[in-house]
Amino acid sequence: MSQKAEKAKAAPLPGCGSCEDSPAKRRGLAARPQRATARTDGEGADAPLGIYAKTAAAPVKGVALVWADTGEETGEVVAYERKGEGFKVHVNSQMARAERYALKAVVNKILPKSRTSKCMRWRVPKQSLQVLKSVEFNKAFYSGLQICASVWDCPICSGKITERRRVELTGAVAVAKGMGWQVMLLTCTVPHGLGDELSPMLDQMMDAWRKTTSNRKGKSVRAAICLEGTVRALEVTDGANGFHPHFHVLLFISSDVTTDTVQEYFRPLWQDACVKAGLPRPSDAHGVRVDDGTYAAAYASKWGIESELTKGHSKKGKHDSMTPWDLLRCYLATKCERSRKRFIIYSEAFKGRRQLYWSNGLKAKLGVGDLTDEELAHQEEERATLLSELTDDQWRAVLHTRSESALLDVAENHPEAFDAFLEGVEGLARASGMPDGPCVAGASGKPVAGPKIGTIEEMTK
Ligand SMILES: [Zn+2]
């Protein structure tokens, strides 16, 4: 067995439980030739997404990378670190970015007609495609690509949006504490089973939360505990009992009420609201939990990161709780059909829903700005230098060889080698049979001239 295959075999693999014995896993995820991620010429193929931005990764800490090819399906790379007998997946900001691109390639494949499938691939009409580098953080990013700003479907946009939301949340908690408020973490769940349909269940949960906060009893609870406002995060995991959507709610309280008291107040409120919304009655033990300020601060400071980055890396083997990105990881590693289907169901059910919701007036009380997801995804580094402008052909070669994140790594670590690396990418693309014709919108935003190159399925077969 090759060294690479050995590493991949020793490493913990993402899995949903239904793919334990998949062919890819039995083969130890051997390296595969790289293929194109060509877009389809399907629905809305020449319609720009209308959102353009630069995408920047987190600051680089200069950790050495060990690369191993693990993406049988997409040829993406994941780094491992030797850990005792086996290997632990190595996480740093460059690695996390590589994974985001890898998972994004999975979304391109399984949701080929989505806005997300065009995100960070199509160029902005009449704008040059540039590689820029932040002066402050030494991080490289692309400018001049269309973005989807989907916090649910897009590992790249979601990473950026949730990171900025996390900074907002952490700041808000600190300000609240400075004002002498308490911040508690309320978790609301509902009983669920395999047969439950996700979208109606989400509608009912939203309805139940509205009732919890705005009916007569809810209003009296708010007054009794001096609830100044809430930040509600909608999250979901998938497991043996089906999808498990739940709310994590930061409660900003200006009294000295205890967590036990708050829990006693909210439990019957949530239970009654769920029943009125047509959901099963949550149990006394599991429906509502209130944790104190330590948990709330920890939650605020890692919000988004848990599902974005760390979860799939650190441990697996626990198949009863997969995040949406775990489903993508599972498909990436094993072509798991169940995970593909579950991600599509999840994507359809969450489309258009708010991931994070601040109650009216709270942002103003805490001095937090009011930016939309689109505006956050669009935020750019003010102080950045231009490293390079890419031609259509160069960008096609980068996409074809799936070098988007590797090119940024080179820009950050070895800018002097940037041109040589890009030349190598073009050579690799030619050598691996990059087809002529459109695989990305040209500078006009429309596909560049050339023969049709088929569907994603044909390209990645
Ligand atoms: Zn996106």
* Overall morphology: globular
Radius of gyration: 23 Å
> How many structural units, i.e. domains?
2
State the major sheet: 5 strands, antiparallel
What percentage of amino acids are in beta strands? 15-25%
Q: Alpha-carbon distance between the termini?
A: 25 Å
Low-confidence stretches: 1-14, 20-46, 52-82, 307-318, 438-461
Overall description:
The chain is of the alpha+beta class and 461 residues long. The protein folds into two domains: 3-154 and 379-460, no CATH class; 159-376. The protein is built from 17 helices and twelve strands. Strands 10-7-9-8-11 form a five-stranded antiparallel β-sheet, with helices on both faces. It has a four-stranded antiparallel β-sheet with strand order 1-6-5-12. Strands 2-3-4 form a three-stranded antiparallel β-sheet. Helix 3 (93-110) packs across helix 10 (324-334), helix 9 (305-314) runs parallel beside helix 10 and helix 10 runs antiparallel to helix 11 (337-350). It is globular. The two termini are 25 Å apart. Residues 1-14, 20-46, 52-82, 307-318 and 438-461 have low confidence and may be disordered. Zinc ion is lined by residues 116, 119, 147-148, 150, 154, 156-157.
